Amino acid sequence: MWSKRIVEWEMGGTLYLSVPFTWLLGEAEMRAKKHKGRVVAGGPAVALMGAPWADETPATTPFDVLSMHNPLATFTTRGCPNSCGFCAVPRIEGGFRELADWKPAPIVCDNNLLACSKAHFRKVIESLLPFPSADFNQGLEAARFTSWHAEEIARLNKPMVRFALDRDSQEGPVHAALDRARKAGLTRFGIYVLVGYTDTPENAVARLETVRGWDIRPYAMRYQPLDAERKNSYVAPGWSEYELGRTLQYYNRLRWHEHIPFDRFDRRATIPGQERLFEEAVTADDD
């Protein structure tokens, strides 16, 4: 349901632009310059890098902009008490705080929901009970995830619980959080794995394979600098563009590729219609 693009609307001759990613700022500027009237811009990208081409960049708006990006999404808290170097949240949202009021919706986008009080968390669970499913979309911090949280989430219909394994030191907390979740009867999981930040290809693959060992298909997330003007332009030391693309395409399409060991995977196998040709080539090599 996510638009993943610039959301724009016009009212009273004013053009409003909500820009989620920094690499869309150039496109937003072109739209603004074509508009014959006032331009108001906002969104995470504008909060990070500004928009000198706009007439106004307000911190808040009377519009429900999040619903324009995804009508099923909501925030119940803002900010995060952590300060991870790869994350924009501390810069664009400030300190952690619970919201007094929010729109009940099944996709919870809080950046660190578990930093909230038990009272707030229970209110969030109560707001999600009527929905046929619930997704803690931005992930839950494994180190803060307790058996109490797991039991509360287990009250929901088909909840999707997500964690992150961004560095080796998180392996223990994530594994423990999964144990607590499974003991509470939870069965739907997603695990984000940051790739291409300060790791090596070997280290990233080891973390991705660790997640597979937990009977979960990982989701590899390519690191994007906070000032990236072009998506996927950054290649960390020790990586190559080919190796980044190979890693992401293999692990994010495991439903199609998991019969091929990663060390024998070639990006040609990701071209539609070429999977069988590649598999045949591998078999021929074995012969």
What Rg is obtained from the alpha carbons, in whole angstroms? 21 Å
Low-confidence stretches: 273-287
Number of strands: 11
Sheet of most strands:
6 strands, parallel
Structure description:
With 287 residues, the chain is of the alpha/beta class. The protein has helices spanning 25-34, 44-49, 65-69, 89-93, 118-128, 147-153, 171-183, 201-213, 241-251, 254-257, 275-286; strands at residues 7-11, 14-18, 39-42, 73-74, 77-78, 97-98, 107-108, 134-136, 159-164, 189-195, 218-222. The strands form three sheets. It has a six-stranded parallel beta sheet. A three-stranded mixed beta sheet has the order 1-2-3. A hairpin with a 2-residue loop joins strand 1 (7-11) and strand 2 (14-18). 27% of the residues are buried. Residues 273-287 have low confidence and may be disordered.
